[in-house]
């Protein structure tokens, strides 16, 4: 009997298919009811597929960059004000809560989940992809309905299970679904089009944009619009467009604190304070404080998790990935993460030479993640990294499931990429 962990052939890869279906099947549930669940969900998927990686592929340079980031983060604990200290018994108690431990585990488990799907057979990938496309429909519908009803549906569900969730918090939690939908929108739309479900593809896009506008959540809306621009550029100009994206990404990561300090000095931030709503006003204060603090230790940073040390000015994190990386890990941290995304975009450019539709979706998804990361959440939040990994998995599963070419010949589903 053929092992379910064997490399993909013309038939199915049952174990990888089961794990991927579990991952995609649970996505709408966590996306609507509890986004924090993406961390253990993706980690579980990685743990379950480790046997399929026994005969592994050659080393991945992108993972090597992330490994270097983990090493530098660990080194920075020597001067971090938030470095763990031993307890009275000489242990570190709650070691699983340490950011550096979680980063190492995420690199291994999330990386395993993302790598394993590259071994899926096309038929298994198509089945799993269909589960994702079908599942996101009710999640998107609930998201839009809750946006119109100010979270009343989620509030009713929480009260039905005995959770006394406050109406304000229910509205906020329901709105968070927009981030999940934004990250999975582009690969899921392509999957729906592969299946001939144009109504589903259009409906997902409408729900995403309308929900973000109604809830006044600017970050996911702006991210999706930037992602759509990246999609259009790569679909039109292929590898040239994908590689052109490398420059603004690298500049954004390397110049972030200097740009913020310049904006403060020239009075731009002062003008913006008068124009933006409260949530963005708070962000401006956080960014200005963090950028100024970064200049005290620009080369090495303040150390991993140091943002939590400035509780009076920074609530947990900076709401900006480049700024937080500079503040905590200095130039090496910002350069490594900027370099990681540049490498991702370079690979997307290579993909565009043969699979332009899929490269466009990958570019759109990467840009969506980068933009949201620059405006919301902490860079080390495990659920956010897990969601980004899930989006990568969705792109790879779609790519495993369907052939795509870039020289004008129609694909299996009739989509015709623009000529190179």
How many beta-strand segments?
0
Strand proportion, as a percent range, falls in under 5%
Low-confidence stretches: 1-8, 88-93, 406-420
Helix/strand-derived category reads mainly alpha
Helix-strand pattern: HHHHHHHHHHHHHHHH
Between the first and last Cα atoms, what is the distance in angstroms? 44 Å
Helix content: 55-70%
Which word captures the global form? globular
The total of helices stands at 16
Give average pLDDT, whole number: 89
Q: Summarize the main sheet.
A: none
Determine Rg (CA atoms, Å).
Answer: 22 Å
Q: Could you describe the 3D structure shown?
A:
There is one protein chain. With about 425 residues, the protein is mostly helical. The protein has a domain at about 15-50 and about 60-80 and about 95-250 and about 330-400. About 70% of the residues lie in helices and about 0% in strands. The chain has 16 helices and no strands. The protein has helices at about 15-35, 40-50, 60-75, 100-115, 120-150, 150-160, 165-195, 200-215, 220-235, 240-245, 245-265, 270-275, 280-295, 320-350, 355-375, 380-400. Helix 2 packs across helix 16, helix 9 runs antiparallel to helix 15 (about 355-375) and helix 13 (about 280-295) packs across helix 14. The chain is globular and about 60 Å long. The chain starts with 13 loop residues before the first helix and ends in a 19-residue tail after the last helix. Residues about 1-10, about 90-95 and about 405-420 have low confidence and may be disordered.
